Description:
The complex is a heterodimer. Chain A contains 5 helices and 6 strands; from the N terminus they run H-E-H-E-E-E-H-E-E-H-H. Chain A is an alpha+beta fold. Chain A has a 3-stranded antiparallel sheet with strand order 1-3-2. A 3-stranded antiparallel sheet of chain A has the order 4-6-5. In chain A, a hairpin with a 2-residue loop joins strand 2 and strand 3. Chain B is mainly alpha-helical. Chain B has a single domain (2-103), classed as Winged helix-like DNA-binding domain superfamily/Winged helix DNA-binding domain (Arc Repressor Mutant, subunit A, Orthogonal Bundle), CATH 1.10.10.10. Chain B contains 5 helices and 3 strands, in the order H-H-E-H-H-E-E-H. In chain B, helix 2 crosses helix 3 (28-38) and helix 2 crosses helix 4 (47-59). The longest helix of chain B has 26 residues, at 81-106. Chain B is elongated and about 65 Å long. Chains A and B meet through helix 3 and helix 4 of A and helix 3 and helix 4 of B.
Amino acid sequence: MILLGKGLVNMKDINRETKRVFKIFFAWNEKKEQDWLESMSYKGWHLERVGFMNYLFEKGSPKGYVYRFDFKITFKDDQDDYLAIFEDLGWEFIDRFSSWYYFRIDPEKQKGKSLEIYSDNPSLIKKYQRLLIFLLVVTGPMIYFSIPKFIERSIISYGTSIGILYILLTVFSVIIEGLVIFAIIRFLIKITRLRRQGKE
Amino acid sequence: MKENIKGFSPLTETTFFILLALNEPLHGYGIMNMVNELSSGRIKLGPGTLYGALSNLVESKLIEPLANDKRSRRKTYRITGSGRKLLEYEIKRLKEIVKTANDFIRKGSGKYERYK
């Protein structure tokens, strides 16, 4: 029986069909990413791993999974407690990419449960505040110190091959800075909207 | 101590019900069901909200994880002495609100003539 069981597992491994999809989503556009993952699950492609701009799916039977993402920065070692609560409430942890945690729930199997991981406004506002602080603390100083340096160096070494490198770096960091500022504005708007709704 | 507790008031509805549910030791799943029942089905707890509330409440020493449960993945929580004090303070506050509102609606606003 045990041998047979093992054999079946191996067979399943061989038959496992996976595919990797490259796609960019921005943090302020969670809904778009959720909807895309949900539409993939209707086609039988279920998320397995999340990487930088890429997603690994495994083929299975079509399902109506609902996907949600949480943003969590921890200084204490409480990831086990954290994941245990999600699991306890019927959510499956899929993968973690940087500080983003990917979860899904099967609404068919978990009837009557919240399909949102944040079920009241104050806690959702806190999630966006964590994101804002992260953007300001981590990317803020990096941009502040790097951009002027790149600009200065690209002016000094203009015309040389190093100059071209610095110009490219300058353009690149200006784009990143633009995105970060845009993200900060989007999150501020989100928080303000949630606050105005005022409901719990 | 008492002043400290007033600082947590008013609790959000979700936090209030979680604290109330933890009058008896419960783990995550139990809290979710209990809160749902206590709120007549109005509150369906999401895991992000529950995790945030639990860690805040533990940090404020209003609830505590049970000691004999440390090795288990699922933690069981229960209310502490200060948690109970806060709960009583909140119940008193809510009672007053309901009484005032009820009197105002049923007995009329005659008492408040001077503000009109």
